[in-house]
């Protein structure tokens, strides 16, 4: 992986240099050049990189690093720690305290993902027991109001807007009034995309702020943003005084250095990460995971969490129980294949790791193959499914006819099943938790 | 307002800084490392990327050996010309069908500006009295069809759409049939935003393109990858993965009315040989321009079109 890539690149650099014994200050600088490159490749702003390297250098000149037998690891560790602390150190919760309704306004460039983020945030707050009103203040983009209305319906929360002839600040104000009337305790304002250099539109954002006094003013930023992230964040922060950031499209393989740039120039925390097409693909932001990602390690923790979420916990427990009793039938086999299909997009998940995007490994279950397996198993009698050993030659011919496949297909399936069963029984030993994941 | 006035407006703040910084350290004579470092900073801050930037700087250094530069502008020009050359070698105009409808499909990640670009293209060609059909093959995003519907009415184009959540391949099929039956000059296919990391969505895209080429031989005449001008180094990966899935014929760089310069296009053209064909410079239907390699290259260094 690329993270090891940075570590091993550093190791190479240091190995070349340390022939003379202890690393010198100059050697460290040489190594830090690799770090600089990694950060620039991750889209961290040029100036931010410069300052960051300066700070890290001081820590690296510590005797501990220079005399260490593994200076590369030491340097990576320091860089990682510095990144985490710059990214806010810990998670930062939303502030929706105070007298209700708490108003949350979303601002950002065009196409950064405000409307989708509004829906995701609404759903999450609703799950937390809040009564949410989504308000569309985007009177410019055609059908933007309609889009939020549909999203609100999907999230199961209330929606409010006025005609696109009404000014956004008036819609915001009326939206808050509407929330009080209908006893909603959170209002989320979706606003039009605007360029930070468009003075007229930035004035409008300020007017929306004045009209609705949002407690949270969140800047929505695309994780794929390049060097301009700094200027964008700085300008939005100056005009609407942002309280935090939502980083979107983190299900791409972008390293997301923009996050660091923004955290650095605004000093405001990143609060949420949005990562997927579904409304519940939304999480609190974890600085440590982002730091690994920027360095190219990939966000492995998020990946595992996502994989686990895709699993039906009850079914998984049932499966564990069965495995313990060394029972694994064709029905279970089909169930497992369906689980894999549900995840996916497991291939999609893996592709979140930088470098994996183009991996030629075929990690996905072919839906056609799954349909064939289903047809074959459905053509078996319940007895055959429970006890595949009884499936003789003539039964195979019947199953093939019944499922519109060939005897070879049936044979192949049975072989796969026996292999899977063997593998699972072997794995259902001491570490069952891992056994489950390693099925793929 | 011309593209370059717009670009200039957007770039005014940033480029002024960059240029004064470089000017302040420039001494007539041979190229110094200090100066090249500054030039490198300019390119990286324009999202050109470390690799492409290093290649450009190295080749400038190589060619300038023994040469002397009188004015700082001469150096910018030398560099800008180098960038322009990268685009020029892959440059190609928008393709048009010999007969029957011409088909352009827009693809790209979420929020890059596909629908808006379609609207602008529709405006361009309906203004030339061409018959234009829009295909709403984004059946995923909420109200995407409605958005295109508004644009169809504003520009006087026809719209082919199915219900939300239906098969985008089927929309493409109906639209292609409609384009032939109604003797349309141009069919513009809008597709759902998809991250290149989603394999199933990339498969869906392949199918849309396959359907179009089956119904109209030679189509789609252009498959344009729409890239947000603020995109960083991921743009190169996007282009690579999209081009592996479908035959990308060109780029459309959007939102260049902001302060971003879209430098990732340099890396994409240089490494993948994909030309830039269109640039988006605003939210109005008329804010679309054909790509001008030299203008773009010079704007990276803060020159407007009168600068060369």
List the helices and strands and how they pair.
The complex is a heterodimer of chains A (440) and B (308).
Chain A lengths: L1 H16 L7 H17 L4 H15 L2 H5 L3 H16 L15 E7 L5 H14 L4 E6 L6 H12 L2 E3 L7 H14 L4 E6 L7 H14 L3 E7 L6 H12 L3 E5 L9 H9 L3 E5 L7 E3 L2 H8 L5 H11 L2 H12 L5 H14 L2 H5 L16 H12 L3 H5 L6 H11 L3 H21 L4 H6 L3
Parallel strand pairs in A: 1-4, 1-5, 2-3, 2-4, 5-6, 6-7
Antiparallel strand pairs in A: 7-8
Chain B lengths: L2 H23 L7 H13 L4 H14 L8 H19 L11 E6 L6 H14 L4 E6 L6 H12 L2 E3 L7 H14 L4 E6 L7 H17 L6 E7 L5 H12 L4 E5 L9 H9 L3 E5 L7 E3 L2 H8 L8
Parallel strand pairs in B: 1-4, 1-5, 2-3, 2-4, 5-6, 6-7
Antiparallel strand pairs in B: 7-8
Helix pairs in contact in B: 1-2, 2-3, 4-11, 5-6, 7-8, 9-10
Would you kindly provide a written description of the structure presented here, covering whatever features stand out?
The complex is a heterodimer of chains A (440) and B (308). Chain A is of the alpha/beta class and 440 residues long. Chain A contains 21 helices and eight strands. An eight-stranded mixed beta sheet of chain A has the order 3-2-4-1-5-6-7-8, sandwiched between helices. Chain A is flat and about 80 Å long. With 308 residues, chain B is of the alpha/beta class. Chain B has two domains: 88 residues, SRP54, nucleotide-binding domain (Four Helix Bundle (Hemerythrin (Met), subunit A), Up-down Bundle); 191 residues, Rossmann fold. In chain B, 50% of the residues lie in helices and 13% in strands. The model of chain B has no long low-confidence stretch (mean pLDDT 89). At the A-B interface, α2, α7 and α10 of A face α1, α2, α6 and α9 of B.
- By helix and strand content of chain A, what is the structural category? alpha/beta
**Beta-sheet strand percentage of chain A?**
5-15%
Largest sheet strand order of chain B: 3-2-4-1-5-6-7-8
Using only CA atoms, what is the Rg of chain B? 21 Å
Instruction: Identify the CATH class of the largest domain in chain A.
Output: Alpha Beta
